[in-house]
Amino acid sequence: MLSEDQCEQIVMTALEVLERTGAEVLNKEALEIFEKGGCWVDGNRVRIPSSLSEWAVRTAPSRVTLCDRNGKRALSLETTNAYYGPGQDNVNIVDPMTGELRKPVKADVATTGLLCDGLKNIDFAMSNGLPTDVDANAAEVHAFEALVTNTTKPIIQSVKNVKQAQAIVDIASAVAGDLRELQKKPFVALYFGTEGTLIHSEETLAKVIFAAKNGIPFVYATKLIAGDTAPATSAGAIVVALADVLVGILLSQLVRQGAPVIAGGFFTINDTANGILPQGAPEVSLMGTGMSNVLRYLRIPSFGFAGATDAKHSDAQMGLESAFSVLHAGMCGTNLIHGCGQMEYGLTGSLELLVMNIEAIGMTRRIMKGVEVNEERLSRGVIDAVQPGGHYLGEEHTLKFFKSEFWWPALMNRNRIDDWTAMGAKSMGQRVKEKAQSIIKNHQPEKLAEETLAKIKAIVDKA
Known about the structure:
Elements: H1 4-21, E1 23-25, H2 28-37, E2 40-42, E3 45-47, H3 50-59, E4 64-67, E5 73-77, E6 83-86, E7 92-94, E8 101-102, H4 106-118, H5 139-148, E9 155-158, H6 162-176, H7 179-184, E10 188-193, E11 199-200, H8 202-214, E12 218-226, H9 234-255, E13 261-269, H10 282-298, E14 302-305, H11 316-331, E15 336-340, E16 342-343, E17 348-350, H12 351-369, H13 375-378, H14 380-386, H15 396-405, H16 417-422, H17 428-442, H18 450-462
Helix pairs in contact: 1-9, 2-9, 3-9, 4-5, 5-6, 6-18, 8-9, 9-10, 10-11, 11-12, 12-17
């Protein structure tokens, strides 16, 4: 989407912002680290020489690998590799069995983990809702327990503070064997970011320092509202977002060179007519993938957003908005794409939408695969064998390639209308609901050892 020249202009502007305007740093330890590292510190204002930002970009890994729970490499976050997963701390959920709109509980997070585990094209797990039936101060820890015991896929886990981060790392270490094994084969990345434009809070930077010291991958993301907390122009919003995440990247590298960091931004616009911050707007995709382009230019693994909708229930708007963003994020090469299954501008988590997203992801991956050109696929021999007017149905060449060359839907309907009617004339929404319910009822995730479960419970009880 963005040319190299455009990426370069955005990068140079962000470096100038950090050098001239600077950022507010509200963490004493971070201020000391920045000053010792060569930044200009005036009270809480930190101005960063461009050479130092460029050093941090060179030092940060250009590839971050996340494994599954068993230590097998699962996600290689680099170049244009694109991986999809759900959203995180929605305040409401749609009950997948009853359709009721309600507050999420811990069992719902467990169900999300189970569904992620059983769904093809969902590559990692997030909570889809913050549990409200547990101690609020430890809700993220409970969410991680619910996920890690119900899926072997990598987990992206939000954390409020260092205490939560420590508990989550302790749980993950118990699963991996110890901290060293977790560092070698990480299956969790901590997720947090800035709370305001060019303002980095005490707690946020404490989490950066914690993750870097422990060698745990983390996502450092900024949340911006174009025309409100960021410039109204897409380019200006990306500049501010890049400047924001460069602060976190620099701090992590000053703490521990080579600390694994994934950067990104969640962008939205201010819909003043309705008083909302939409997630289905085209500008959300435009700015998010623009940010990913710039991060790929810098060879920093990217975190983005797709698969969400502003719709309130399963309808055409849901399908249109979510599929468009899934396609755009994938085609633009965002590495770690969260947000699948989010409705109502991020307030509500829907497992039905998460299931619907797998079709859009499958189609996107087929398009991204492109047209492979080699001697066998050029088909010179079979064209000559069939001759003009013939057909290719019985050819060995056709039998060899038709399954791999064509994408086959799991949920979309291609039946003739008579067959579709005979099967109940079910809508896409009905098929999605049935698929979600079937996985929830029948899928059996791989269990952890009882000894490991006991260790996890002890950590959660103390959180």
